[in-house]
């Protein structure tokens, strides 16, 4: 915010903002700030508003609807082979009908159980389904996103073990690692990265890094590159060191792969977008967290419990609320203030509609189609697998002599969405490789089409 906005703040005549110019002066003086600019010193000037926004004149309802239709007509329907944490999985049509009901769509935090039984039951069902999916003992009522869930799991491990660092695999989603580092800087705890070799964790390096100050080891499976880690190697080593074992998983993969509980995980986290939530240009999503029973009073956010009333009738209520709004500030596990209930409701609905056989079929189709496309690309184009010796589920890393971004942009013109490029995540990263993901939603015609387009690069 530049000077022109600061000047305007003093002269605002907005009836629902009670603070006078004198009130604002006293508040600034109390916190030791000379003016509002001091409050914004941490925001780089390059991203501050330099002049008033160029907003259109006010419009009538009819004009607004017409403008929205015009903008909607500009959208292009893309065939999605993009991955990197967001996936185009099947969503039953009934889901939108359910989550659009006003009692769910407009619901706020269910503090009063006597008027919130529907919302509370929906959250309780979500928790129960996540426990069944992951083979874990407890699940909270969801978090903001997969990256937040990962970072909160790290914070939990540090509180529980009273140790000072976490080891995170280099094969975890780069954005999630960034969130983890941000949490670590403020908590504080140290984040050390376990190097990768050929797209998977270097087990020898992990053994060297694991020490008496390691609170937890964090592994993504399938990992960011789509590859399957050697999960059987980790649990005994980590628990022998009295560290916690944290797994970040793909919910759909559990239709085929072992669950976090079967691998002996202490905490399991995930990005819940794949469960009934559309891609939505990157959000909102939900963070899945499940854990062993012994952590039930340590996990962040809230948990819904089932009970009976004085007449013996089944009911639901917020059983545990561990944020600072409810308990002593120093006793809070986190400041998580929402549980993305609508997204969690969609996840619960997806799991109910799919059932056990449905999620297995989604996983099988994703696996088979991904391997069909990967083999066809390798056999018929100049693009190759970056990690040809690795095992993958539904996502794989493609490389070639061409820079990835021009390839992605070229196919986007044909309404084929590939990517992301590894080069977008950090300076100096591999600019010649990009991810491709195949879900049960893709058809043979679409997969053959993308191969034909890649053949043009010769």
Q: What attributes does this structure have?
A:
alpha/beta, Aspartate Aminotransferase, domain 1, Aspartate Aminotransferase, domain 2, 3 domains, 7-stranded mixed β-sheet, 3-stranded antiparallel β-sheet, 37% helix, 16% strand
Descriptive report:
It is a single chain. The chain is of the alpha/beta class and 458 residues long. The chain has 3 domains: 3-47, no CATH class; 79-88 and 355-454, Aspartate Aminotransferase, domain 1, CATH 3.90.1150.10; 93-351, Type I PLP-dependent aspartate aminotransferase-like (Major domain) (Aspartate Aminotransferase, domain 2), CATH 3.40.640.10. 37% of the residues lie in helices and 16% in strands. The strands form 5 sheets. A 7-stranded mixed β-sheet has the order 2-10-9-8-7-3-4, sandwiched between helices. The chain has a 3-stranded antiparallel β-sheet with strand order 13-14-16. Helix 9 links the parallel strand 3 and strand 4. Helix 5 runs antiparallel to helix 12, helix 7 (117-134) runs parallel beside helix 12 and helix 12 (341-380) packs across helix 14. Mean pLDDT is 92; it is low at 1-6.
Explain briefly what this protein structure is.
The protein has 458 residues and is of the alpha/beta class.
Write the layout of secondary structure elements.
Blueprint: H1 3-11, H2 21-31, H3 36-39, H4 61-72, E1 79-80, H5 93-99, H6 102-105, H7 117-134, E2 138-139, H8 146-161, E3 165-169, H9 174-186, E4 190-194, E5 196-197, E6 200-201, H10 203-209, E7 214-221, H11 235-240, E8 244-249, E9 267-271, E10 287-291, E11 302-308, E12 314-321, H12 341-380, E13 384-385, E14 395-399, H13 404-413, E15 416-417, E16 433-437, H14 444-454
Parallel strand pairs: 1-15, 3-4, 3-7, 7-8, 8-9
Antiparallel strand pairs: 2-10, 5-6, 9-10, 11-12, 13-14, 14-16
């Amino acid at each position: 915010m530049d000077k022109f906005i600061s000047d305007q703040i003093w002269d605002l005549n907005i009836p629902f903002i009670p603070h006078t110019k004198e009130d604002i002066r006293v508040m600034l003086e109390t916190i030791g700030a000379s003016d509002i600019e001091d409050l914004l010193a941490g925001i780089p000037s390059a991203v501050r508003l330099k002049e008033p926004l160029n907003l259109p004149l006010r419009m009538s309802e009819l004009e607004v609807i017409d403008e929205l239709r015009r903008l909607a007509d500009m959208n292009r329907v893309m065939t999605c082979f993009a991955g990197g944490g967001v996936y185009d999985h099947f969503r039953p049509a009934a889901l939108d009908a359910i989550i659009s009901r006003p009692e769910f769509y407009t619901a706020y935090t269910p503090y009063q159980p006597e008027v919130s039984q529907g919302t509370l039951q929906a959250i309780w069902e979500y928790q129960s389904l996540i426990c069944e999916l992951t083979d874990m003992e407890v699940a909270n009522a969801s978090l903001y996103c997969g990256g937040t869930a990962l970072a909160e799991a790290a914070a939990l491990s540090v509180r529980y073990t009273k140790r000072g660092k976490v080891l995170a695999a280099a094969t975890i989603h780069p954005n999630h690692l960034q969130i983890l580092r941000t949490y670590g800087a403020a908590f504080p705890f140290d984040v050390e990265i376990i190097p990768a070799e050929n797209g998977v964790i270097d087990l020898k390096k992990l053994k060297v890094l694991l020490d008496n100050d390691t609170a937890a080891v964090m592994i993504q499976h399938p990992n960011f590159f789509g590859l399957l880690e050697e999960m059987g190697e980790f649990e005994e080593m980590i628990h022998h060191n009295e560290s916690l074992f944290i797994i970040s998983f793909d919910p759909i993969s559990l239709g085929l792969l072992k669950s976090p509980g079967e691998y002996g995980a202490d905490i399991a986290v995930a990005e819940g977008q794949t469960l009934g939530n559309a891609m939505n240009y990157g959000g909102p999503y939900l963070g899945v967290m499940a854990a062993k029973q012994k952590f039930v009073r340590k996990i962040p956010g809230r948990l819904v419990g089932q009970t009976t009333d004085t007449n013996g009738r089944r009911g639901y209520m917020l059983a545990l609320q561990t944020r600072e709004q409810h308990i002593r500030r120093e006793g809070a596990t986190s400041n998580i203030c929402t549980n993305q209930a609508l997204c969690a409701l969609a996840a619960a609905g997806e799991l109910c509609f799919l059932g056990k056989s449905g999620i297995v079929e989604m996983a099988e189709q994703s696996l088979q189609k991904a391997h069909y496309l990967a083999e066809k690309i390798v056999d018929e184009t100049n693009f190759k697998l970056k990690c040809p010796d690795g095992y993958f589920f539904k996502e794989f890393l493609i490389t070639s002599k061409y820079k990835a971004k021009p390839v992605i942009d070229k196919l986007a013109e044909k309404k084929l969405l590939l990517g992301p490029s590894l080069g977008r995540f950090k300076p100096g990263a591999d600019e010649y490789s990009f991810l491709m993901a195949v879900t049960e939603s893709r058809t043979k015609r679409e997969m053959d089409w993308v191969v034909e387009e890649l053949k043009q690069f010769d």
